[in-house]
Structures are given as structure tokens and as C-alpha cells.
């Protein structure tokens, strides 16, 4: 059989060449395809490489966004935020209805009985015989030995801080057997009162009352002044730590007094320990409750204010409630608490802090936490909160209320609801004529003395914030009224829980307030513990039971 012509012409070598060409063409095609694939990837902007990089970048950004997206902050703990104005808006109609019901003819007798019970001394009376002042029986009287020299002190702070310094100064003078020079008062940047001792207290009465126990003179003798070129600052200042023991004064101060004949201690605030020998405690009592009588001008107006307040209280038999309201600008600023005044309030408080304390609140590391302050009961009560609390405790709108305070912060706003709750509200400014108050204006300690006198004579005293004023007042009332005068000292850590609940009902609110009142009554009778102040707890150092056994 004959092969085709083509086969015949090519022969064996021609076939090999054709197969080689085909293989070469396939290899070239494969190489070209691979090259085109690579070029296509680059020409498309990096191809899958760029797309992968972009996807990776987006993924990383997404992860960062997820990490940065913090969970929403938890809601404030109960009692952290000032919402009292919202609670008042909810409860005011119920308060009015409650007052209307109490005043109705069918409940008139029970209402009067309730008012009388609210204006009586605490139900938790002392057991056994009543307590009475007995300072005189505890004071030893003998001829004073020759004086070791003169003691000068500088009292600082407000009225009752000055009072504390004076009492302790007499005690230290007795320890040193020194003659006390009538104390001078430091002009404080907060109180800004230039009053002298004699402007506030009766100097002659002070000297006479202490005559048998400590020598007191109005000024240094001329010969002593001459030794120091009439320059008081040249007299050595024996700087003393707070709450120093009697031993410190005898060992450290007395030698210098004997050497120079005169020493001074400035400042002199809380410079003597609370616990001292009984004769020194008795001397403190004598000074505080007997020797420190207000000046004639203060006593005259203060007695008139008490009479006028008693006459205003005809619906309650001449009995009235006094409230020490600490909502002055400096107190609100110092507390670092926030209320409902927004940015305006914040700016005013920042300015007040800087004006009075110059950077103290901006120091490195200082943390200000208004919410924690409020939960811990450290925030001053607003006038509105005081009014709501007292109404919840059972004092109705026929209660006569005396408010002792300085200039209330933003008073037009904050005092209005308190007047709304208690229409029979009075202050020294409303009880006194402008011309009667004129001599006291600009003198915070003298004005505080007026408030102090009216509060001492009230049937019930309400303290809303710590400080020397309520502490001295509670002690003075205990001393005058058998060791047990009704004082309401609310637990503000419990109070703020009710003030922070806009959905609370009136019956529940009342129940909470009355529980706080009962807790306060339980603590009304108290005896001084070793580190307590004798000026707040005069029993048993200044008082004895009537049978004389204690």
C-alpha cells in the first residue's frame, strides 16, 4: 500500500521537526500567558495584592473601632445626683392635700396634738434624775499664786471657732499660771470680720467671772510692751500643734514664759487636747457657759428677736423650730458638690474657690467627685431639701420656722420653695428693723451671735451641716435644758436616696423621713467620750444628776 504524498515527502526527519515546533509553540504560549497574568495583576493597581492589603487595613480599622467603642457608662449610684427639685414637683400637690386634710375640722384636734408632739423634747428621755449644771461645785477656789507672766493668743475663724479658742486659752493660762491678755481676732479671708473681742463679748463680765480662777487683763502693761519696742510681733511665738497635751505646755511653753515674762501663740485654734484633768474641763465649762456673755448691743437685739419670734408662733403656743442653714456661696463652693445650676453654677463655684482658697482645689493629684460627696452625705442641704425633709417628718405649714444663716447662695431661687412649704418663715432680717441691724452689717460674727441666741431658745433645733455653730449650739442647749433638748441631726446618706428618686410617692417619702427623725431622736441624749468635744457633750464634765451621784 502506498503512503500519501505528504508522508512520502516529509520522511522521518520532517515529522520530528513538526512535533518539536508544536512543543515550542505550546511552551511559548504558556510563558506568554503567565507573563500576561502577572502584568494584568500589576496593571489593575496591584490586583489582588492591593485588594488584600486594603481589606487587611479595613479589618484592622474595624478592630480598632470595636476596641475603642467603650460600653456606655453605668447609671449613677442611687443618691449621687441632685434631683430634689424634680421630686418636689412630683410631691408638692400631695403635700398640699396632706396639709389641707390635717387642717380640716374633723382632724383639727389630732392635728393640734401632732404639732404639740413634734415640738416637744425627744421621746428618748434620760433615765433617772435629770441633769443640771454643776460647774460651781466642781471648781476649787483659793487665792491665786503670783503670775508667771502674760499669755497672748490669736483666735481665728468665725464666731464659734473664736469661742473655742477663748475657752482653751483660759484653760492653758490656768495650766501655766499665766495672766491671759484678752484675745485678739485674726481677720480671716473667708469671714472678713474686723470685730474686736469687746464688740462680740462682754469684756468686764468675762474678767469678773474668771477672777477667782484665772487673771485676765485687757492689754499688756506698758513696761512689758516697752521691752519689745511696742511691737507685738517681736514677742516670741510658741507655735503649737493641734490638740497638744497639758504636758506639752508645761514642758515647752512654761520655761519660755518664765524666761521672758510673756509669750504668744498664733494661731490658736484647737490647740489643747479634748481630754484634760477634770479641773481644767470644769474651767472650760465655766468659760463657755458663763463667762462668754455676748456684748450689751448684741444681747439687747437678740432678746427682742426671741420675743418677736415667740409672738409669731401663736399657733404652736409660742414654740418654734430653728434651722441652721449652711448654703452660703463659700460653703457650697468648699463642698465641691453640684446642684441644678448648670454651667453658670460651675463658673461661680470655680471663681469662689479660687477667690477664697487660691488654687487649693487645683493642686496636682486632687480629685473632686461631686457624686461621691453627695452619696457620703457631705453636700449642704438646699433650703428646698430642708423644707421637704421637715414636712415629711410631720411639721406642717402652721409651723413657725426661724432660719439662721449667712447670705444664701442664689437666694431668690433656692429660698422660694422653702417659703412656699413653710409660709411662717422668719430670719433676723425679717424680724429686725433695718436700722436695728445697721450696726451689725458687715460683721459676720456679730450677726451669727444674733442667730445663735434665737436658736438656743427654740423648741427644736435642726442642723443641716457640720461645723462649730451647730456643735456649740447643741452643747449649749443640752446644758440649759437638762441634758436633753430636741435636736434634729439627719443622716444625709439616707436623705439623698429619697431626694434622688423622682418616682417616689408621698406616703413612702414621709415614712423615710420619719425613720430618719426617729434615728436622730435616739442619738439626742449623749455623753462625752474621750475624744469628743466638751462643747458639744457637756455631760458629765459640766453637769451632774440632781441627786448628786454623778
Automatic annotation (TrEMBL):
Region of interest: Disordered: 54-81
Keyword Transmembrane appears in the UniProt entry: no
Pfam families on file: O-FucT
GO molecular function, one term: glycosyltransferase activity
CDD domains referenced in this protein's UniProt entry, alphabetically: O-FucT_plant
Record keywords, A-Z: Carbohydrate metabolism, Fucose metabolism, Glycosyltransferase, Transferase
GO biological process, one term: fucose metabolic process
Keyword Mitochondrion carried by entry: no
InterPro entries: FucosylTrfase_pln, GDP-Fuc_O-FucTrfase
Family (UniProt): Belongs to the glycosyltransferase GT106 family.
Listed name of the protein: O-fucosyltransferase family protein
Amino acid at each position: 500500500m502506498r503512503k500519501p504524498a505528504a508522508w512520502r515527502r516529509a520522511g522521518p526527519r520532517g515529522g520530528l521537526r513538526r512535533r518539536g515546533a508544536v512543543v515550542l509553540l505550546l511552551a511559548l504560549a504558556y510563558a506568554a500567558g503567565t507573563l500576561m497574568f502577572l502584568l494584568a495583576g500589576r496593571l489593575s493597581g496591584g490586583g489582588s495584592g492591593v485588594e488584600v492589603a486594603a481589606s487587611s487595613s479595613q479589618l484592622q480599622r474595624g478592630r480598632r473601632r470595636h476596641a475603642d467603642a467603650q460600653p456606655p457608662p453605668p447609671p449613677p449610684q442611687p443618691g449621687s445626683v441632685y434631683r430634689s427639685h424634680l421630686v418636689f414637683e412630683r410631691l408638692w400637690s400631695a403635700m398640699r392635700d396632706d396639709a389641707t386634710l390635717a387642717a380640716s375640722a374633723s382632724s383639727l384636734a389630732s392635728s393640734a396634738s401632732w404639732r404639740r408632739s413634734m415640738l416637744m423634747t425627744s421621746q428618748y428621755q434620760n433615765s433617772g434624775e435629770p441633769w443640771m449644771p454643776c460647774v460651781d461645785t466642781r471648781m476649787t477656789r483659793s487665792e491665786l499664786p503670783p503670775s508667771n507672766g502674760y499669755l497672748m493668743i490669736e483666735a481665728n475663724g468665725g464666731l464659734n471657732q473664736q469661742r473655742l479658742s477663748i475657752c482653751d486659752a483660759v484653760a492653758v493660762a490656768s495650766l501655766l499660771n499665766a495672766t491671759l491678755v484678752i484675745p485678739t481676732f485674726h481677720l480671716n479671708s473667708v469671714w472678713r470680720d474686723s470685730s474686736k473681742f469687746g464688740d462680740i463679748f462682754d469684756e468686764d463680765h468675762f474678767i469678773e467671772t474668771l477672777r477667782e480662777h484665772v487673771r485676765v487683763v485687757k492689754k499688756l502693761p506698758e513696761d512689758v510692751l516697752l521691752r519689745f519696742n511696742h511691737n507685738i510681733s517681736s514677742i516670741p511665738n510658741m507655735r503649737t500643734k493641734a490638740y497638744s497635751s497639758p504636758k506639752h505646755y508645761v514642758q515647752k511653753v512654761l520655761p519660755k514664759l518664765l524666761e521672758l515674762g510673756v509669750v504668744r501663740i498664733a494661731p490658736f485654734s484647737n490647740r489643747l487636747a479634748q481630754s484634760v484633768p477634770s479641773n481644767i474641763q470644769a474651767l472650760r465649762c465655766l468659760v463657755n457657759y458663763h463667762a462668754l456673755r455676748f456684748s450689751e448691743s448684741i444681747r439687747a437685739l437678740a432678746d427682742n428677736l426671741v420675743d418677736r419670734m415667740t409672738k409669731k408662733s401663736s399657733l404652736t403656743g409660742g414654740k418654734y423650730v430653728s434651722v441652721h442653714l449652711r448654703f452660703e456661696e463659700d460653703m457650697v463652693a468648699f463642698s465641691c458638690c453640684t446642684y441644678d445650676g448648670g454651667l453658670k453654677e460651675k463658673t461661680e463655684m470655680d471663681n469662689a474657690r479660687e477667690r477664697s482658697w487660691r488654687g487649693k482645689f487645683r493642686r496636682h493629684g486632687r480629685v473632686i467627685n461631686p457624686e461621691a460627696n453627695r452619696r457620703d452625705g457631705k453636700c449642704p442641704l438646699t433650703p428646698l431639701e430642708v423644707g421637704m425633709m421637715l414636712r415629711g417628718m410631720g411639721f406642717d405649714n402652721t409651723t413657725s420656722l426661724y432660719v439662721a444663716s449667712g447670705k444664701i447662695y442664689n437666694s431668690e431661687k433656692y429660698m422660694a420653695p422653702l417659703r412656699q412649704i413653710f409660709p411662717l418663715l422668719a430670719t433676723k432680717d425679717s424680724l429686725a428693723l433695718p436700722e436695728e441691724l445697721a450696726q451689725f452689717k458687715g460683721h459676720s460674727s456679730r450677726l451669727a451671735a444674733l442667730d445663735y441666741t434665737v436658736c438656743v431658745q427654740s423648741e427644736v433645733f435642726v442642723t443641716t451641716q457640720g461645723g462649730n455653730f451647730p456643735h456649740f449650739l447643741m452643747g449649749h442647749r443640752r446644758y440649759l435644758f437638762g441634758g436633753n433638748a430636741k435636736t434634729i441631726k439627719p443622716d444625709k446618706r439616707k436623705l439623698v436616696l429619697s431626694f434622688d428618686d423622682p418616682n417616689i410617692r408621698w406616703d413612702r417619702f414621709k415614712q423615710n423621713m420619719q425613720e430618719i427623725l426617729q434615728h436622730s431622736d435616739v442619738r439626742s441624749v449623749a455623753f462625752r467620750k474621750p475624744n469628743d468635744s466638751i462643747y458639744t457633750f457637756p455631760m458629765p464634765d459640766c453637769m451632774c444628776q440632781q441627786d448628786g451621784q454623778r
